[in-house]
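User: Just a sanity check before I run the rest of the batch. Below are the structure tokens for the first item. I only need the designed sequence back.
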């Protein structure tokens, strides 16, 4: 059965159109809209909780992928900051190491992997918190992640601190992680 000539002309015209729709952008839009709907319906804290569940699983998977690719049982402490920067680079974030010592890694980011749509969606920062926290805790036994600045909150950049040792006092908004296995 052949396609009528008018429909074929319309299909040809569709092929020539410029519509800003491609797979990665589409999935970013879906994630951003889901997180926005969650924030609006259940509130920011609960939305962060839902995203935390997903991000924790993704963090474990990414951690395992790096360990397998590098043929390691765990990511050594000296490689950890570079792994965190590399994973964000692979998903089109622009993270860099601002500072590090034995107890802390401070990272800054000038481009969110979720793009401009992240604005007003701070619950999506739980992706970074949990992925970094899972990988760092597996590497060192403990991690606490603070996001002091976030593009999602309207800041010009993100500033993420990964603490590698417990401290008696810490920011109420930070999240702690412990090595599971």
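Assistant: Here's the designed sequence for the first item:
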């Amino acid at each position: 059965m052949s396609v009528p000539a008018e429909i074929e002309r319309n299909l040809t015209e569709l092929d020539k159109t410029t519509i800003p729709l491609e797979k990665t952008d589409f999935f970013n839009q879906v994630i951003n809209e889901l997180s926005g709907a969650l924030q609006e319906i259940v509130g920011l804290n609960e939305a962060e909780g839902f995203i935390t569940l997903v991000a924790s699983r993704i963090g474990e998977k990414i951690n395992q992928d790096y360990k397998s690719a590098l043929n390691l049982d765990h990511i050594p402490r000296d490689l950890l900051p570079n792994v965190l920067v590399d994973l964000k680079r692979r998903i089109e974030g622009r993270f860099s190491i601002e500072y590090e010592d034995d107890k802390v890694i401070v990272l800054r980011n000038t481009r969110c992997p979720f793009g401009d749509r992240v604005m007003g969606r701070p619950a999506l920062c739980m992706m970074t918190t949990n992925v970094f926290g899972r990988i760092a805790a597996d590497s060192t036994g403990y991690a606490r992640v603070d996001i002091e600045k976030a593009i999602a909150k309207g800041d010009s950049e993100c500033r993420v601190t990964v603490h590698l040792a417990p401290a008696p006092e810490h920011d109420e908004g930070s999240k702690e992680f412990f090595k599971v296995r």
